[in-house]
Design brief:
It contains 11 helices and no strands. It is mainly alpha-helical.
Length: 371
């Protein structure tokens, strides 16, 4: 984007980042203000926690063969996307505030591309997990029969779309030649792109709502039909567990993403009295917090996953003990092959262990069906 030649008539390729910020009304302070310190400190803290939490999830899925199923591969990819999001946001914290004025236009576009791509990848992974759970539950399975090749293709598609969405503004959907349509929150992006990105994420969320609503209605209907064969208390627990999980998933997504998407829509629609800059940084931190909440909802609530986390952390804490043989490379990971079962128990364990999402309630329903 940075050119040393004369500007094309109507274009502003040779202008600095500060020029576009001043034109859009997003003035950059040359000095650090208390608000800047608060935002950067909060952002760095969130980013570090996001990075560490998602690394832990990825390592646990890698070393524990019990997690080598399509749903866990998708959870691992979600953790990778959230890890990327944490790194991108940490990069943003070192290139924001008074530092922004020192950026070239290329550096500014790289900064924004990293943020857009990482957040898009995280949202697309959430949608993929919702659709995968929808498919497996409607076929009364705990694990999808999707082949590893299809999982790899799905993951590649997610990252391809995420990277493409991040690069779209640099490929022409910017306002370097259309100054009057520059947005306020992202002064070198067109307002129409902000509206497009917000609408796309709202559409993704609507698909998630539809998938989880169908899952809830289906499981509740099935559990009601089977309540005559099971106790009423168990039936209520099944529905309650499922409703709690669905509420957590959708509720956290709404809380973390809605404020930012609303701001993008308002800015994209040219609302000059909405004061979007006052809340911009905090909404971005809130959206980043979704990358922190995801491991808690999708992984940390899984008993097997928690046990694997404990072993990893114990190995790291005792790493300095020269006499201890329990290192990370030789750690016992509770795989199915390592745990002896009596005849017929292996199939039961296969069905009832390792259900990280939605299946907490449906396990009881499936067990009742088989009985």
């Amino acid at each position: 984007m940075d050119k040393l030649t004369d500007d094309v008539p109507g274009c502003y390729y040779n202008r600095t980042v500060q020029f576009f910020y001043e034109h859009s009304g997003k003035n950059i302070s040359a000095h650090w203000r208390p608000r800047d310190y608060v935002v950067v400190s909060l952002g760095m803290g969130v980013s570090v926690i996001v990075i560490l939490a998602n690394i832990l999830v990825m390592v646990a899925i890698f070393i524990n063969r019990r997690f080598h199923f399509p749903i866990y591969y998708l959870l691992g990819n979600l953790a990778a996307a959230d890890l990327f999001s944490g790194i991108a946001y940490l990069h943003l914290m070192f290139h924001t505030g008074p530092w922004t004025i020192k950026l070239s236009k290329n550096q500014w576009f790289v900064r924004q591309t990293l943020i857009d791509s990482s957040l898009t990848a995280s949202v697309l992974n959430l949608l993929a997990i919702a659709l995968e759970r929808h498919q497996t539950i409607f076929t009364m399975q705990l694990h999808s029969k999707m082949t590893n090749r299809r999982v790899v293709l799905l993951i590649a598609l997610i990252w391809g779309l995420a990277i493409f969405m991040g690069l779209v503004p640099t490929m022409g959907w910017h306002c370097l030649c259309d100054l009057e349509n520059c947005s306020t929150m992202a002064p070198m992006y067109k307002r129409s792109y902000l509206v497009f990105w917000a609408v796309l994420n709202l559409f993704t969320f609507s698909l998630m709502v539809a998938a989880y609503t169908r899952i809830f209605v289906y499981v509740r209907h099935k559990s009601q039909r089977m309540s005559q064969h099971t106790s009423q208390i168990r039936h209520k627990e099944t529905v309650f567990n499922l409703m709690k999980t669905v509420s957590m998933i959708l509720g956290c997504f709404v809380i973390c993403w809605t404020p930012g998407l609303v701001l993008l829509m308002l800015d994209g629609l040219g609302c000059e009295s909405c004061q979007v800059l006052r809340y911009e940084k905090y909404c971005l931190v809130l959206a980043e917090c979704n990358s922190l909440v995801n491991p808690i909802i999708y992984s940390f609530r899984d008993t097997d996953m928690l046990q694997t986390f404990k072993r990893i952390l114990c190995c790291l804490c005792r790493r300095g003990d020269a006499g201890r043989k329990d290192t990370l490379s030789g750690m016992r990971c509770n795989t199915l092959e390592q745990e002896p079962y009596e005849n017929g128990d292996a199939e039961l364990v296969e069905k009832t262990r390792g259900a990280p999402l939605i299946l907490k309630g449906t396990e009881d329903m499936m067990t009742s069906t088989e009985s």
